[in-house]
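Notes, p. 3: input format for complexes.
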Amino acid sequence: MPDPSALSTGFGELDASPTQRVRVWDLPTRIFHWALAVAVVGQIATGLSGVMAWHLRNGYLVLALLMFRLVWGFVGGHWSRFASFVHSPSALVGYLRGRARPEQLVGHTPLGALSVFAMLAILVAQVATGLVADDEISASGPLTRFVSSATVSLASAWHTTAGKWIVLALVVLHVLAIVFYALVRHQHLVKPMVSGDKLLMQLAPASRDTAGSRLLALIVFGACAGFAYWISTLRL
Ligand code: HEM
Ligand code: HEM
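Output follows (236 residues plus protoporphyrin IX containing FE):
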């Protein structure tokens, strides 16, 4: 288990001050996160209850959000960039043995990063298969006519069986992990995902979260939403 006191050792003389308030999650990342959480719960609910008109509409929102996050992983604030949380297998082993380097404990930890990438990947697969799925009754994705019927069958099968259960399992695991960190490790991860800030025992680079970076996020999201809307118009 990583020793929180290890936080105070990694940055040498920079850690003279006991705590620093550091912006870790920029506003766009926080809005993305909570919007994605609501939208994915909505997708599961509308899918399972068969409210397919809303399943498709909400699906385009999930598509836009995921595209936004993929772009934000390259141009967003420091701790939202994929480069800040792509950790090597040895970093993961070190983290699990309680020997994480201090900077690995600021944003997504090596284990947290793994779950974030898994969640994003399975959601991308769920959206991609949804776009070409067909229930042969009333609901079909907007891109079904561009692929073969064998692809439609395969995609529908994945989307409605393994895909939906893996999404559900990862979401449950995600929330249980957050509860585990709060109750067992006394690390409250939700508050920073709301306020954006973490109290750290060392100096660490802050994520840029200025009016300019928020405007950039708005422009990126606008482009992603426009693209998702265009995809929706391809449905006959
Ligand atoms: C369908 C529901 C949810 C989905 C799909 C989801 C997805 C994600 C994703 C993709 C991230 C990575 C954030 C990023 O870097 O962009 C994340 C992080 C996080 N989520 Fe969720 N989330 C969901 C529900 C929740 C709920 C209900 C909570 C609160 C209990 C929560 C708390 C957090 C926290 C605290 C983090 C940051 C973890 C860290 O510090 O490494 N999430 N979530
Ligand atoms: C996070 C993303 C998504 C989740 C969790 C999700 C979940 C589900 C669920 C639970 C079902 C019902 C499965 C069943 O009948 O047992 C379903 C069906 C369906 N979804 Fe999604 N979905 C997502 C995204 C999308 C997207 C983006 C589209 C298209 C725009 C889409 C199109 C469809 C279609 C056409 C069906 C009916 C498929 C069939 O019955 O063969 N879904 N989805």
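The two ends are 54 Å apart (CA to CA).
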